[in-house]
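Worked example 3. Consider a protein that binds magnesium ion.
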Amino acid sequence: MPTTELAESQPSSQLVRLEATMSQEAPQYPERTQQCHHLDPTLRSDESLEFEQALRQKIVGQEDGIRAVVDLYQVYCADMCGAGRPIGNLLLLGPTGSGKTRIVEAAAESLFGDRCAVIKVDCGEFQHSHEIAKLVGSPPGYLGHRETSPLITQEELAKYHTEKIKLSFLLFDEIEKASDALWQLLLGILDKATLTLGDNRRVDLSRTMIFLTSNLGGREITEMMTGGLGFAPLVRAESKPRLDEKVERAAAEAAKRKFAPGFMNRLDKVVVFQPLRPTHLEQILEIELAMVQKRVMDTAREKFVFHVAPEARSFLLREGTDLKYGARHLKRAIERHIVYPLANLLSTGQVRLGDMLCIDWDEREQRLLFEKEGEGAVLPVVAPATMAASVQAAGAVGGKPAEEPSTAAAREANRHP
Ligand SMILES: Nc1ncnc2c1ncn2[C@@H]1O[C@H](COP(=O)(O)OP(=O)(O)O)[C@@H](O)[C@H]1O
Ligand SMILES: [Mg+2]
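Given these inputs, the predicted complex is written out as structure tokens:
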């Protein structure tokens, strides 16, 4: 008899017995009595769509990376995390400065409003076995037992949890630098989602997403992109998928050569980050400039607004494009050419609260030009989170910070006294 009919016709005591038997046996399905509905397993829930959108505002390109992280979040949202296993173990491969570390920070920022809501283990710092004590604490009786507080504890994992989200992020960055002892610890975590601390306390990582990053194969990938020229020639649209495939294969093969099968088998997915192309760098420039504006709003002594003219942006892109270091080079160019001069202007009193600056390009002198366009900008007095959102939104519309109507009016008045 079909189970549903049974459920309707049996007294509750029998139902309990039925459930108990069913839990050990394969589920039984009622016979098909009506037309079945087609379901759509690709639909995302509202919360994961929101998460994806927030990630996309911070991460440029890297579709596979975004999809893999959102997939895991959906597993978490549906409470489908298997017992005794992390929510997911992802290995992120690809060249330096392509967003591997950033995507984990961005995920934390999107869910908890703080990019630091990640336990980050820089594997390079744990090359020697004795340094593992920094991660798990030393056993009682050992020298320094009381002084070393372990990095990975249940409290640390739960530090940023909210009423709604009880998910944690653990990142092992640049694993190719890990020592043997760290490998052993890592394998245990990936497999059983538990970690035993020096003092024998157990850490449960079954509600944790584990990310491992490596630059392995990065050099080959960059060479593939540049043909050994040192810059990325324009790739024709029709040959791009083939190049992406080659890149993926090179990274996966490098991983197989370097890492033992015991490790590779414990991974849920290997995601290959693509080298960034000029259009990606343009978008990253927008994001980074919006972040500098946010920094000014959050922490600078005197808050002001600035915008960067298109010619000045082109200069920053020229300065900041170096395929070997991906977006890291661009960030350095922004620090050197925008942040340092702004700091100078602030600390010498040339820029004051509410000023409006334009950063332009002086073609004759071949340098950036900092001009005061107006003053008396009405700066939003809002909570930092909201302010961040407004600055972020500004970044999306040509990098011009959002102005209140009165600010714009003040500028107009300044232009036409
Ligand atoms: N795909 C990307 N989208 C947005 N920003 C990026 C991206 N890739 C790199 N960046 C920027 O460059 C910086 C360095 O990238 P990171 O993620 O640390 O590189 P890696 O791949 O070596 O881990 C980041 O902090 C971020 O500001
Ligand atoms: Mg990194």
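Take a moment to read the result before moving on. Confidence is low (pLDDT under 50) at residues 1-11, 382-417. Residues 278-299 form the longest helix (22 residues).
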